[in-house]
Amino acid sequence: MLRKLLLITLLISVPHLVLNAQDSSDDSARKDRIRRGKQLVNEGRCNDCHTPLVETKDGLIPDSKRTLSGHPSDSEIPEIPAVELNSQEWLEFVSSLDSTVWAGQWGLSFSTNLTPDPESGIGKWNEEIFIEIMRSGRHVNLKRGIKPPMPWKDYAKLSDEDLGSIFAYLETLQPIGNAVQKPIPLP
Ligand code: HEC
Question: Is position 4 within any domain?
């Protein structure tokens, strides 16, 4: 009787133990991926362009309340200056803009919202969609090329695993509703 009981307990508990072990190893693999994704986002300097700045007593710093949420939809759209393209003045204009809006021969481009907000961010994407965008340099829904200065060609060299880790990290960000302005071509 005792042996039978033991056997039953074993039969019940062994798969349970195995499942638990599986769960926690999945969990730690996921944590590792997120950590790796965060490291790649820092090394890839995504925040330089996708996080707006905020004025503090120490000057302008990346706004931690709006991490990676892109060009703020409530900020003013700068005028495209009437200067000759490729001139020094033009280059100065490019570098004087807020880090989330850029100007060049392509017109004005605005860094996008990379937080998991379903309407204005990446909330409805999955890992495959993200990898496809980063590799092809095309917006999946808009069927158009991603404008400069987004350095997608550099990121396209990353492995599927690394790009997937970036996506896993982005999914853990605070979702921020911010519908970013579409690029504006030169007049
Ligand atoms: C030098 C500035 C810059 C850097 C650095 C940068 N981006 Fe971008 N990114 C942009 C701009 C500007 C756009 C919008 C271009 C457009 O509208 O066509 C963009 C667009 C994107 C898009 C396309 C979004 C969509 O709606 O299809 C993704 C995804 C993206 N960036 C991810 C990243 C990631 C991840 C990193 C870091 C590994 C990164 N970016 C670093 C400037 C940058």
Answer: no
Q: How many domains does the chain have?
A: 1
Q: Is 114 in the pocket of ligand 1 (CB under 6 A)?
A: yes
Structural domain includes residue 3: no
The whole-number pLDDT of residue 10 equals 46
- Best substitution site from 39, 130, 141, 150 to test ligand 1's pocket, by max atoms within 8 Å of Cβ? 150
Is residue 60 one of the residues assigned to a domain?
yes
17 in a domain, yes or no? no
Range of the domain at 159: 32-170
User: What are 93-146's pLDDT values in tens digits?
Assistant: 777 778 899 888 888 999 999 999 999 999 999 999 999 999 999 997 768 999
- Specify the pTM: 0.87
How far apart are the two ends of the chain, measured CA to CA in Å?
Answer: 88
The ligand 1 atom at the shortest distance from the C-alpha of residue 122 is 26
